[in-house]
Each structure stands twice: as C-alpha cells, then as structure tokens.
Amino acid sequence: MSLSQELIALEDRYGAHNYHPIPVVLESGEGVHVWDVDGKRYFDFLSAYSAVNQGHSHPKIIKALTEQAQKITLTSRAFYNSELGKFEKFVTKLFGYDKLLPMNSGAEAVETALKLCRKWGYLKKGIPQNEAIILFATGNFHGRTIAIISGSTEESSKNEFGPYLPNLKLVEYGNLAALQTVLSQNKNIAGFLIEPIQGEAGIVIPDDHYLKSCFQLCKESNVLFIADEIQTGIARTGKMLACDHLGIHPDMLILGKALSGGVLPVSAVLASDDIMLCIKPGEHGSTFGGNPLACAVATAALQVVLDEKLAENAALMGELFRKELSKVQSKWIKVIRGRGLLNALEINDTQDSKTAWNICMKMAENGLLAKPTHGNIIRFAPPLVINEAQIKEAVAIIETSLKSIV
Ligand SMILES: *Cc1c(COP(=O)(O)O)cnc(C)c1O
Questions:
Q1: Which of 24, 143, 174, 175 is most deeply buried (CB count within 10 A of its CB)?
Q2: What pLDDT is recorded for position 375?
C-alpha cells in the first residue's frame, strides 16, 4: 500500500464517515498550492470552501499566530484580554457596524444571529413570547446544527435528524413576490436569513434587483435582513462583501471562514447597538469565542486582504478566469457563472451523473483540486492571491481534463 492509501485507510477505519473526499492526502500548502504526501503539487481551487482566501499559510498570518501563541492563547471571557477590544474596533470600523460578537465556527455565528434576532424580535419589535419567526431561503446552506438544518431544504442534511426547530419559514430564493406575500401575512417575523450568493447550492446568483428589494421589503416590515457572508465575504466575490456590490448594509452580518485566513476557526456577528445590546451579560457565550489567539490571527488575516488588495485581485482574476474558461470547447460545459473568484461550471449531464466527479478526479490527476457540489456543478474558488499566469495554467489543466472525459 502507498503512503496515501495507508492514510486514507486510517481515516476510513477510525473516523466517522460524514464526508466523501477526493482521494488525495494533503500535507503542506503555500499560497495557491498544496502538496500531497508524495510531494505532488496541486492548485487548490476549493480554498477550504473559501476559508483560505489569503492563500495557504500566509507568512504574516502565521507570524501573528506564533507570536501570540507564545504570549497567551486563551483567557475565557471571564476576564478581559489584551487583543479582543482592538480586534472588535478594527472589524466594526472596517465593516461599518457598532458592535461585534465573536464566535468560532460559521454555524455558531449563524446560531448567534438567530438568537440575537429572536431577542430583538421580543424586546424591540414586540413579538409575543415564543412566537418569533425567522425566514430562510430555499437552497440555503448555513451550517450543520439542529437549528440551522431545521431551515434547510437539503434532504441529506435533514433526514433522520428531526424533530426540527419550529417557527422557521422557507421562502423561495430569488422570488421577490414570495417574500412580499409572507411578510404581508405575518406580523411575527423577526428576520430574514440569506446568502447574497448561494455557494453550496452551486454559486446561485440572484439578480441585483432581488436582493436590493428584499432588503427594502425587510426594512419596510421591520424585519432584520441577516446576511450570511461566511463564504461570499472577505473579498471572495471581488468586493469586501457580496452585499457591497449592491450597496446594501445588512442589519446583521455573519462572517467566518476567511476571517482567519483558514488558520483557526474564527467567526463573528456584526450589528448595531440597537440589536446587539439586546443580549445581556450571561445570556450567550463561548469558551473560545474572542480568544486572544483568534483575535490576533483574524486581525492579521483582514490586514492581508487590505494590504494586498485581494478584493481588486479577485475581481480581475475572476473575469480573466471566466473569459479563459469560456474559450474552452467541450461538450461538458453547460454554463459558466460567478462573481469574483467564486465561480461555477455547470456540467452538461444529469444531476445524479458521475461526470462532475470524474472530471474532478481527472483534474486532481492533472494537478488541480476542486469538488462537485450538487452533483453536476463544479465550484472553482482558488485563493485570492492567484495571478494571471496561474489562472492560465489552471484553465489549461481544466481544459485537458474536460477533454479526456469521453
Ligand atoms: C461554511 C458555511 C457555513 C458554516 O460554517 P462552518 O464553519 O462550517 O460551521 C455557514 N454559512 C455559509 C454560507 C457557509 O459557506
């Protein structure tokens, strides 16, 4: 057995089977590249689901990590720490909010936003106790907790995990009239949770008018517009936030993934005082949330995005990627779409076909890693530090791989 086969067998034997990975075993990374245990180099076109926007092991982020780790890593929120306030000030100023609530994983930040939204609904909107409703969009992905999957429309995420959380209501993503109807029929809606672009659903991009109008409708109905920018945020789509393309400022903003450059789980909810101060001491928390190591790392990670103008680079390289890919002649290309460096190639085959998987296997063989989402859609989301020559080299690999599948 080769070393990678051995390591795959170990995971298979001793780990839960809750993932179905592409069979490569990664050992190191730098910038847009990762290497497997045999020393083979790949372009990383998944970027850990957009967590490593800044590139693998960015030296400035790793420096912040090691320096802070040698001082102190965790104090708990029972005490103040030297890094948290500075981090909160930096991030709130950067995104234009009054306050930040730090958590760890993305799902935790979404849970936090749901709790905050309910509190606000009772304290500020005057919704009767235990009657607050939160709207979710069809096709959403917000994480894996019980509350979150209760609002999911994905069978595999939900089946046999019930009973579900009540008072979550689904509205069709992209359908403005549906939102209008729900809002007009119900006085107890506290918030609308939405991804400005649905990443996991296959890079589903609604038209600009839809999101702007959703935002406006929520405003008119005194319903919080809650943007989950865990995947679309931090420069991925060519602006700091996907909402920035539309000039909308969500009532609550949820960040995660690239907030730490993929170094540690760091997430956050941002909101105004009016919303954030609805939660009082003791009412919500997390042992690791706001730890000094996370704060130092996340500050460095955001600074890298600003210093290296990664939003601008994502916009330029994204356009180049779509332009180059659209020149490729292949019967498998159905649609190419995306914004910035969050792109999708929809494969010209049925959703339950193995074609997208086979293409991903071929690309891995040829030195580029990506993974199908929803069966026949391949997401292309490299680290935002990618340059023109690398984009062209990557597209050549994609082309060769597409052509080798008959
Ligand atoms: C990844 C993701 C989450 C969940 O984040 P975890 O860190 O995996 O819990 C939530 N929302 C969106 C849009 C995501 O892409």
A1: 143
A2: 87
206-253 confidence digits (pLDDT tens): 999 999 999 999 999 999 999 999 999 999 999 999 999 999 999 999
Just list the catalytic residues.
141, 228, 257
CA of 143 to the centre of ligand 1 (A): 5
How many residues are listed for the chain in this entry?
Answer: 406
> pLDDT tens across 14-41, in order?
999 999 999 999 999 999 999 999 999 9
Longest CA–CA separation in the chain, Å: 64
- 141, 236, 267: residue to mutate for ligand 1 pocket, most atoms within 8 A of CB: 141
**Which of the listed residues 145, 230, 255 should we mutate to test ligand 1's pocket, taking the one with most ligand atoms within 8 A of CB?**
230
Q: Which ligand 1 atom lies nearest to the CA of residue 110?
A: 10
Residue 200 alpha carbon, nearest atom of ligand 1: 15
Residue closest to 275 by CA, chosen among 398, 100, 59 = 100
Span from the CA of 142 to the centroid of ligand 1 (angstroms): 5
Q: Burial code of 105-119, b = ≥16 C-beta within 10 A, e = fewer? A: bbbbbbbbbbbbbbb
Nearest to 119 by CA among 106, 103, 107, 101: 101
Does this model's pTM top 0.90? yes
Our answer on whether the CB atom of 256 is closer than 6 Å to any ligand 1 atom is: yes
In this predicted structure, what is the pLDDT of residue 15? Answer: 98
